[in-house]
Input
Amino acid sequence: MKQYDALTFRVEASRFVRNILMATASQDDVTIFDGGMGHLIKQKELKLASLDGQQCDKYFLVGAYANVEQPSVVEALHLEFINAGATVITTNSFAATPWALTSIGKEADLELLLQAAANVAQEAAAKAKKPVQVAGCLPPLKDSYQTVDLGTAELMQPTYMHMAATLEPLVDLFLCETLSSTAETMAAASAASMSGKPFWVSWSLEDSEHALLRSGESLQASVGVLLLMHLMRQLAGLTNQRPSGACGA
Output
């Protein structure tokens, strides 16, 4: 296997990103995503029976439970994004994490909320007058933009694996979104990759002129992690191929 020093690896990662951007720029079709569902649902000030008396605004859990109690509201918002041009809509489950649900004593509802979010999104996609894909959301496991007390990638991965496995039958691809550290990137992307479905990654950068994640790590390093994962997956695929037998006359 080819060995890379740190500089060579960064160069290879840069080339990988450049090639992706060039390929995207040369295509006629443009992929348009939806926007922030949580904020739109919060503006509607929904009253949900399952959250009666609980303070859930901080974690946007009203949006997550709306998939169960008021799915027509969520579907209508998905359709608004589709009618505005979106060709990929994301499951309305950004807030549905074990950490947020534990804060209100409802951690057992995780699978229910994830499945409900995916079902509503699929129903909206089915009503679209154009092809629309549903992306399963793999969000930060704690507060958005949080970079401390996240744990290692190994500690986060089982949770991401569980979330991905729950969503996998109901989505077309995965979106690992608003990630703030390389550890989050490794954990979320590896879980999405193991599903066998396409996945995309989006990061949250610090407010500066430098391409740094909220954790202070370079964006290039996180892209390098994805490149390494891709190369390892390709190598594993080659290793698992059985040699074909030679045919003789």
Q: What stands out?
A: Residues 1-11, 241-249 have pLDDT under 50 and may be disordered.
